[in-house]
Amino acid sequence: MTSMTASSDGAASGDGRCWAPHGPLLPQYGHGSLAEVVPSLLAALRGRSENPLGVPPVRAVALLVVDGLGWELLRSHQDDAPFLARHLAGSRTITSGYPSSTATSLAMLSTGRPPIAHGLMGYTMAAPGLGQAMNNLAWTTHGSGSRDLRAELPPESVQPLPTLFARAADAGIRMTAVGPAAYVGSGLTRAILRGGPYVPVQSLEDPVAIAAVRAGLRDQGGLAVVYTYDPLLDGAGHRHGPGSAPWRAALRRIDAIAATLAGVVPDDGLLAVTADHGMVDLSRPTADRIEISERPDLAAGVRFLAGEARARHVHTEPRRAAAVLARWRAALGDVAWVVSRDEAIEGGWFGPRAELRAQVRERIGDVVCAALGPIGVFQRLVDPGEASLVGHHGSLTAAELLVPWILVPA
């Protein structure tokens, strides 16, 4: 079994990355992850010294979060993103958390805390008290016959930490969110963006969106942050694959949005650009798409799977965890990091052990499987949609975990 944590003889790069020689690339919680984005922006606006990402002093910030814009993908497709490419020289990488997935990452941005604290543990996770998986994006039970969980599991209880709106208000800073109209009132929006104004738009290219950003940054002349989010690139990557023609067209659109947003930032402000995760292509001949219903060695003793194809939480039958762990390691140990719940927690995969909330522990699988090679573990009978996707993410590889942190001064 390979090492789980970055050891002292791992190589550290100038941007804070640390590699374990035989283990995964770990999220840089506390000094170089998505959890440090909003605290750093608020510190820059208030002139405070607790500024882990070193954002220069400003009075207004537009934050653009691009779903699926991994650092490696951006670097390898600079011709499709000329505006962002011009600013790469002064940029750096930061990491998502684990799993490197939308709900987990956006909750890190919102709360300034790692997954082990905020508790949204991936695309799907064990539904508190229900003994099955829930879909954190839809806030429903996962699988056929899904039901809305917003009344049964209020988002404000599942994710109880203060959101970025509360953090900004406490610092005396006005904050506005501008995002897709379809997300108004959703469970995830209530979990991570409650407590402040949300301006619904059809697209960030919409003049209404640009006007909302401009107004949020300039209104009343005070300190201000506008949070914007765009899902198009991620959708193109999932359906067609990262690097495909539709994906590149989406990247060109994102680049134009970034340039437009930079143009409405006031003279004493900046545009900050980041992402929630990267992506890998599992459509290639070298990829191994493992179907759990066809693998009795992997299905035995398993109650249900949560997470996503490349970052599985394996919830086992009572007293079967050790046997399931042994079988998954034997089958996948050459292409995935397979560890127990306690090993993942102690190894810092989800954040510092000291921040673990009791309610969150049971949302982590008895066995945790993070893909290393080009593999995914699917369950077509539960989620045929996921099994049909080309692009995937969630694991601890550089392609999935590293995201850009780009600052564009006005």
What does this structure look like?
This protein is of the alpha/beta class and about 400 residues long. It has 2 domains: about 35-280 and about 395-410, Alkaline Phosphatase, subunit A; about 290-390, 2-Layer Sandwich (Gyrase A, domain 2). About 30% of the residues lie in helices and about 20% in strands. It has 17 helices and 18 strands. The protein has helices at about 35-45, 70-75, 80-85, 100-110, 115-120, 155-160, 165-170, 185-190, 205-220, 230-240, 245-265, 295-300, 320-330, 340-345, 360, 385, 400, and strands at about 60-65, 90-95, 125, 135, 140, 175-180, 200, 225-230, 270-275, 280, 290, 300-310, 310-315, 335-340, 365-370, 375-380, 390, 400-410. The strands form 5 sheets. A 7-stranded mixed sheet has the order 2-18-9-1-8-6-7, with helices on both faces. Strands 12-13-15-14 form a 4-stranded antiparallel sheet. A 3-stranded antiparallel sheet has the order 3-4-5, with no helix packed on it. A hairpin with a 4-residue loop joins strand 4 and strand 5 (about 140). Helix 10 runs antiparallel to helix 11 (about 245-265). The N and C termini lie far apart (about 50 Å).
Short description:
The chain is an alpha/beta fold and 410 residues long. Helix content is 31%, strand content 21%.
> How large, in whole angstroms, is the Cα Rg?
20 Å
Number of strands: 18
* Count of the separate structural domains: 2
Unreliable stretches (pLDDT < 50, length at least 5) are 1-21
Biggest sheet, spatial arrangement of strands: 2-18-9-1-8-6-7
Q: How far apart are the termini?
A: 49 Å
How confident is the prediction overall: mean pLDDT? 92
CATH architecture of the largest domain: 3-Layer(aba) Sandwich
Q: Enumerate how many helices there are, as a single number.
A: 17
Quote the CATH topology of the largest domain: Alkaline Phosphatase, subunit A
What percent of residues are in strands?
15-25%
State the helical fraction: 25-40%
How is the biggest beta sheet arranged? 7 strands, mixed
CATH class of the largest domain: Alpha Beta
- The shape is globular
Structural class: alpha/beta
